[in-house]
Design a protein that fits this description.
This protein has about 130 residues and is mainly α. The chain has helices spanning about 5-25, 40-50, 50-75, 75-85, 85-95, 105-125. α4 runs antiparallel to α6 and α5 (about 85-95) runs antiparallel to α6 (about 105-125). The chain is globular, with a radius of gyration of 17 Å.
């Protein structure tokens, strides 16, 4: 695969991970709701509609879709799709650094397995 194809794949993964992280920030105020009903749903929609992080996250999703379509046009799906699992790695690392979350040894081991799998898939012939 060409360098451009790899850039498209990794950009798609990065934009998707960014969307997840920003949407997590956007949904923090929703933790105040303890039940799920029409009133809560309405209030949640209003809160999110007024939230800049929500709109940034949605823009990241839209951009990731466009980039991903370009990547799929150039790469075999059997190689490109497994690369999406790199998003787990990116989100886990960023959630520790940016959101103050913690990673257990089991999560770190699981992330290491994902990385090993991505390396194996990327080195295999199409």
């Amino acid at each position: 695969m060409s360098l451009v194809t790899w850039i498209l794949i990794l950009s798609g993964v990065g934009l998707n991970a960014a969307a997840q992280l920003v949407l997590k920030v956007a949904t923090r105020p929703l933790a105040q709701f303890t039940q799920f009903d029409v009133a809560t749903l309405s209030a949640s929609i209003v809160l999110l509609a007024k939230s800049p992080p929500f709109w940034v996250g949605m823009a990241c999703y839209g951009a990731s879709l466009c980039v991903w379509l370009a990547a799929l046009a150039k790469a075999p799906v059997s190689i490109a799709y497994p690369m999406l699992s790199l998003g787990y790695v990116v989100v886990a690392a960023a959630s520790v650094l940016w959101l103050g979350e913690t990673l257990s040894p089991g999560k770190v081991f699981g992330i290491a397995l994902i990385c090993a799998g991505v390396v194996l898939v990327s080195r295999s012939s199409a």
